[in-house]
Amino acid sequence: MKIPVSISLSTYLAYYKKGDNCEPQRKLKSENFEWDANHPKSLSSLCVEKLSENWVGSPKLNELIAKDRDLFLQILNTNVPLQILVDNIKNDVFWKRCYYSKWNDSLFTNEQKPWINLFIERFYADVLEKMNPKNYDPEKAKKLVKLCGPYVQSLIIKSLVPSDIPVQRTTSPEMADLITCRRQSEQKTSKNIHHLNRDHISLHAALGSLTNLTELHITYQLSSVGEEYRRDQFQFTNNDAKNLASGLEKCYLLKVLRITRSDMNCQRVKYILRGLSENLNLETLDFSHCKIGDEGASFIAKFISKRDKLRNLILTDNLFGPDGGEHIAHVLNHTSCGLRTLDLRLNNKLGSDGIAHIAVSLARGCNLTS
């Protein structure tokens, strides 16, 4: 293949930028990928090029010899329908090309995942982030989950669209197979309506079939508002919490759950923790910047008292005071509490009394290390 997949980019650029001034006596220049630009193409190459232009899954890649298969994967258009690509191509180099052809930003991850997983995880998150609840089609969503589910291990949803945002501002080509036309009755909304439904898309179906999901990070907010800004567009409703909890009930392998920068009051905390009641693998629970009060802290305390595998609890910037701190401190010394890290930064209402409760638990020899 002409694509430099076996050498690092820095090595390639070190030779390529110097051109003829680099080792002028050298006749064989392996970094020159245009060495055969003026050579007539072979008949097999022409056939492979024509095949790539009209390929819809047939012939199968294993029917091509290795040389032709490499050329085919190098020139195949990455806009081929995802279903066809997933069913037929597992090549890591091809999926890396798909990723960078769709997103130009650099990928920062310490996980050694196949590129097909990285691509589908981000593709799936993008679809959910841009989907308008008014055009949500459960049946088509299930088809997408069935396609992407086996490859999604980590899901990061940075924003979600509430139901009152106009569709045309959030529609993208990737959603063409997911959304349906708006009903005419929905277009004739009354001007006198002041209380709009702020629910986001239901994550029950979107999460319930992700059997390999181990990490979920979700934020119920808008990343782009424009001229239609209203404070209530950033609400996290009770229905959102119930739907999310229903989806979490089937995520038995989930190890990391992060719900951050969301309007999650005590009742919604209760819904979420109820959805995690059957999960015994959870290791990290992050409710940062979520407006959780004393009652919500008591629900969290009851939850962690029964989770010996839970190691990290992050409650940065919430609203609970000394009473909430006391509830959490009380369970730190339970034998069934396996917590090692507790983050209570920016909880200004905790006060000296709340800190004192935590200090007493530390003095009694709880398992916290940080």
From TrEMBL:
Please, which domain of life does this record's source organism belong to? Eukaryota
Q: Listed GO cellular component terms? A: cytoskeleton
**InterPro entries attached here?**
DRC5 (IPR052410), Leu-rich_rpt (IPR001611)
Q: Name one Pfam family in it.
A: LRR_6
The places in or outside the cell where this protein is found are: Cytoplasm, Cytoskeleton
| Keywords noted in UniProt | Cytoplasm, Cytoskeleton
Q: What is this protein called?
A: (apollo) hypothetical protein
Native source species: Parnassius apollo
